[in-house]
Structure formats: structure tokens, C-alpha cells
Amino acid sequence: MAKGKKTAFFCQNCGYESSKWMGQCPGCREWNTFVEEPTASCGKSVSGSVSRSNGGNRSEPVQLSHIQIQEDDRVRTEIEELDRVLGGGIVPGSMVLVGGDPGIGKSTLLLQVCRELTLRQHKVLYISGEESLRQIKLRASRIGEFNDQLLLLCETNLELIRSTIERTKPETVIIDSIQTMYNEEVSSAPGSVSQVRESTGVLMQIAKGMGISMFIVGHVTKDGSVAGPRVLEHMVDTVLYFEGDRQVAYRILRSVKNRFGSTNEIGVFEMQEKGLIEVKNPSQVMLNGRPTDASGSVVVCSIEGTRPILIEIQALVTRTNFGLPRRTSVGIDYNRVNLLMAVLEKRAGLHLGDCDAYVNLAGGMKLGEPAIDLGVVMAVVSSFKNKVLDPGILIFGEVGLSGEVRGVSMAENRVREAEKLGFTACIMPKANIESIQGKYKIRLIGVANIKEAMGYL
Ligand code: TYD
Ligand code: MG
User: Fold this and answer.
1) Closest by alpha carbon to 214, among 275, 148, 161, 138?
2) Contact assessment for residue 245 and residue 101, using Cβ atoms and an 8 Å cutoff
3) Are domains 75-279 and 285-454 of this chain identical in fold?
4) Whose CA is closest to 78, among 105, 114, 127, 123?
5) Does ligand 1 lie within 6 Å of residue 107's CB atom?
6) Residue with CA nearest ligand 1 atom 14
7) Using omega within 30 degrees of 0 as the cis cutoff, is the peptide bond preceding 435 cis?
8) Is the C-beta atom of 274 inside 6 A of ligand 1?
């Protein structure tokens, strides 16, 4: 770094700033992510300057009752799974960050958004810093017909982008991706923390100033070569993450922050020949190909946002060949699985101490809701005892450390979804049963502890 310029070390993963280099980031616990960069004060800092937009005038506080809002001004993309995750559509002037691993389908989804919006005579400007116009055209031809409301631009210089936006006045702008954008006033390279932060600040000014809604693509990288989207999570209005394996066709779009709607809402898509197709009934899809006569397989229900999703948990418990038992989990928190196995050992007298255990969630989903606890327990016991659970039974309930089964929220939604998909019985917390009893044809089995539940195997 040149002499005389102030520099600091930034974590490329979360943006943590430090005056000296460190091996591990105290903010996000990642290793080797610190890189020396000029501090923002060298260039003209613009991030967080939305509040300054009234140009140095004295700002006057106002009463809450005097603020007027217009309802129903959201723009629906008509991609239902996306609209729900956004909280009902795009809010004009809002900034949405779409994060995810490279190749997961961010550009594809946003191009599909462009198509739907332009079909409804919205003017959209798609700015790509990664692909040539030809590449975009090739992708577009796979997705379908486009009309002339869509403008494309290959550019990475923010000043040119600003002037183009001012000239063409689009209603929606898509930036693919923020890590390629370049602000001349900041001396560090594109993709570095300061560059990504300042560029987002500039874009934010444009979006809020002109009332344009903006989608920003941010790559998640493990090696820290470019700054991850975590750096700007706090600046934007909505943060959506694309999850899923590139090998598995299902993609889950999850909202982790939303100033205009509920979080933890998910949208499910499937990557096909012609782009991303919505999966309207994920439960049905997740249960496809489920074995009905295998031990260690149970179906649980988890509420994602407002929607119940039925999903299969599989467990395989075998005798350990080497000294230390091996435990792995896919899609479920590893520590939670260990805890539940300890509860089984102590409260139900199962000798799991010399057993390997593998617990998997089918379909590449990740679930963190405690309501799946009882399902994990039943899957492990079913595999351990080699007894098959009736495939028409759905299980949900939280398990406590003394082996008790606790009530969960939205029990009725879960029961309703189970009945809809043709299940014949629900093993569920006793505490939840009273309010639902008699409303549905499905048989409800209330259990108070894991021993009672194990009796149904
Ligand atoms: P892309 O949107 O380029 O990913 P990102 O922008 O997140 O890096 O999607 C890349 C993958 O999607 C690529 O491997 C090809 C696949 N794909 C399809 O399977 N079908 C399609 O119709 C399209 C457009 C892409
Ligand atoms: Mg892309």
C-alpha cells in the first residue's frame, strides 16, 4: 500500500475492521480472511448516506400519525414462490440482495423476473458485470420470449451505470453481481470489502433517490477471494439466499431479512431445461420415492415461515466397528442430534453409546425447527430396534432433556397438511391435542414423553 494513505484490515467474509492483521476473524470466526485495504475515509464515503438525501437542510422530526403510506403499491412478479418470500411483491424503491453459491441459479431467477415484469410493461434494466450480452441472450433463449421493455447493459463502472439509469429511467434495475462493480473513488480492487460497501452505498442512493427497485446479486464464497454478501446484509432492505446442492435439482429461496415482510419464508424451485420452475406443493415432492417398509424412516412436519412442509427423516444406527462411535447428520443440526441421542440413552435406556448413527433429511433441505425433534428420536429408535413405523403416520413435537414431549406452535396447520396428503394418524404432543380434537378425520395420538411415543413402533 502506498505511503501516507490510511489502511486497515478487513475480513472479506463479514466486513470486520481491524487495525492489525489477524489469523481468525473475531466477528465470524473464519480463518485467513483479513486483507489490507484503504479505509473508507480515503475516498468519499457514501455508504449509509440515504438519510443525508435532503441535502444538508436541517432535518425536522415528524409525528408518526402524519406519515402517509400507500398500501397495495407492491409490484407482483407473478412468480408466486418469489412473491411470497418478498412478502407479497416488490416494494418500489427497495433494495433486495440475492445471495448464493456460484452456479446455483441467481442470474437465471433474476432473468425470469425480468421476463415477468417486462411482460407487464415494466421497464427493466439488467446490468451484468460477469457475462457478455451474447451469453445473456443464450440464457434468455432457454427461458422464453422477451419483449423490448428489457434493456441490457454490460458495465462495471458505477458512474457510467448511474448516468445510464438516469438517462433510461427504468422501474427496476438488476445488478449482476455486486462483486464486479467498480467505484473510481475507492482505490481498492472490485470485490474487496470497501469496494463492495461503497458500491452498494452508491446504488442505494440511486434506488432511494429515484424510487427504483433494485435486485443485487452477491456471490457467497468460501475462500474469501471476494467479499461475501454478509458485508452488506445490514445495508439492504431484504436479503434472500438461494440454498441447495448444485447436484440436486431443488433450490430453496429463503428470506433471512425483510423490512417489508416476514422472514424465514421459503420458496421452492426446481432447475430444469427451461430455467427455474416453481414447486407449488413441496411436501408432495419431498415425499416422492419414500420407502414405506424400511426401518429408520419417518415423516415429520416443519413450519417454514407460514407454510407447513412434510419431509422424511432417515436414520441408520449400526454397531461401531472402531472405538469411537461415529455420528453424522445432513440437513439437521449435528449437536441437536447428539443431544437427542443422549436423551434416548438416559431416559429410554437405549444403549446407543456403542453405535454409529447417521441421520439425514431427504431432498437437500435444511431444517432447524425443534418440532422435528420427536421425528429424529423415532427414526433413531426405529432403526436401532429395526422396527418399521406405519408409513401413514406423521410425527411432530419438541423433545426436552428429561424426555418429555413439549407442545409446538401452529399444530393445527401441521395436522391439516397431513390430512391433505393422505396421512392416517399423527403422533403429536399431548399439550397440543385439546384445541384440535374432533376437527379432523385424521387420528390424533397425543404423547407426553418419548417412551409413550416409542410404544407406537
Ligand atoms: P446461473 O443462473 O448462471 O447461476 P448463478 O448466477 O447463481 O451463478 O445458473 C447456472 C446453472 O443453471 C448452470 O449450471 C446451468 C443451469 N441452468 C439450467 O439447468 N437450465 C436453464 O434453463 C438455465 C438458464 C440454467
Ligand atoms: Mg450469475
Assistant:
1) 161
2) no
3) no
4) 114
5) yes
6) 103
7) no
8) yes
Q: Which atom belonging to ligand 1 lies closest to the Cα atom of 217?
A: 6
CATH of span 75-279: 3.40.50.300
* CB atoms inside a 10 Å sphere around CB 104: 22
The packing angle between helices 373-385 and 334-347, to 10°, is 60
State the Cα–Cα distance between residues 329 and 315, nearest whole angstrom.
Answer: 9
With CA atoms as reference, report the closest residue to 194 among 44, 20, 19. Answer: 44
Give the pLDDT confidence of 142-184 residue by residue, as tens digits: 999 999 999 999 999 999 999 999 999 999 999 998 999 988 8
The string of DSSP letters for 92-149 reads TT-EEEEEE-TTSSHHHHHHHHHHHHHHTT--EEEEESSS-HHHHHHHHHHH----TT
Q: Using one digit for the tens of pLDDT, what is the confidence trace for 302-319?
A: 998 788 999 999 999 999
Rounded CA separation 86/84 (Å): 5
* Domain parsing of the chain, residue ranges: 1-39, 75-279, 285-454
CATH annotation of 285-454: 3.30.230.10
The alpha carbon of 215 and the centre of ligand 2 are apart by a number of angstroms equal to 13
pTM over 0.85: no
**Residue 122 Cα to ligand 2 middle (Å):** 22
User: Helices in 211-300 by DSSP H: which ranges?
Assistant: 282-287
